[in-house]
Structure formats: structure tokens, C-alpha cells
Amino acid sequence: MIFPSNIRFLEIGMREHNQVSVSRTAGLYRDRSKKPGHAYAFSVVTQEYKYGSDEAMDLMCFMESLQGPYHVFDIVFDVVSFPRGNVKNEAGKAILHVNGTDILTGGWTPNRQNLFKRGDVIRFSNHSKVYRINNYVSSDANGNASINLTKPLLKPLSGGEFIQYNGVPFTVALDSEPQDVTLDGDQFIQYEFDCMETPNA
Fold first, then answer.
1. What CATH number does residue 153 fall under?
2. Which of 63, 66, 110, 201 is most exposed, with the fewest beta carbons within 10 Å of its own?
């Protein structure tokens, strides 16, 4: 399911969830543990749309069709999902080698500076998790470029997968039910909802 592309957002709050536990022992030493897994979560406020308009009906029908948190859906955020770097006119590129959070990619225009800027987001063709880039990425004379991620991969890359980086969709589910919907006296409708990535979708 895909969130309607004609709906704009008034506010987007973004936060990160990690599988981390930190406690204090009897001697007040920090005891830390972590499990694999991390996800982005969002608090979203849509723009207002006149009840009866195409946008209002598209939004209302889509939200109802989700059946609360039951279904997952893809959503693209105008600000977050598009790169700041010079990669916009490049085709999706292949993974050549993986070493932890370092990903060697190939097939770029040679010697291109700032393909990605630190903070851009990407995802890979073999799973839906979105990752944030932790370095400024430029290609070398052979068209190869090294990407460092802020978080470890949740699913291994075997090589040959492609990168998605332009209009990156987040695969999410609603975080709770019910969601807030407002219909004001002027018959404008607005939704507020929380959603979180579902990397196992």
C-alpha cells in the first residue's frame, strides 16, 4: 500500500528507536546491552483539505483502509526522502562489497564530487529498511564510491543489489489506533498519526 502522493504534510516529527538497554548495577556501574534492530518513527500532521475534495477523500479512504496498525504502507517525505547531494541524475547503482557499515558501490559517473552528502538516506533492493549515510560520498576514477552507514545492516547484502536514493519510501505501519482526524467548522479535514518502520515487512 502506498500513501497518497497528492497529500502534503504540515509537520513531520522524526525519531529513532534502538534495541538498547542501559541500567546501573548495585555499585552504580553502567550495564549496557543491545540487540540487532533499529527503526525510524514519525509523527505526522497533514495539511488541511476541504471535505469532499479529491485530496480529503483520498486521505480519508486510505487511512481507513489501513485498519489501524494492521497493514504496512510506503510513505515518501518531501524533505527526508530526497538526497542533498549531486546524485539525482544517476541511475540506481550496484553493491560491490560490504564490510560492516562500509558499502563499496560501483557504476557511478567517474570523479563526481558529493554524490551523497552526510545525512542522506538510502535503501537497498533486497529489503525495505532505510539507512542514513554517515559520510560525504564521491566517486573515484573507476566510478566506485564508498558509503558509510550510521547503523549496521539488518539484512546482509550479497553483492549485485541496487541502491534506491531518490524519493526513498519508508515502509511503516501506524503505531496506534485510533488516529486523530479533525473536521472543523469550515469543513476542512486534517489527520495526525504516528507510524514506525517495519523492517520485517
1. 2.40.30.290
2. 110
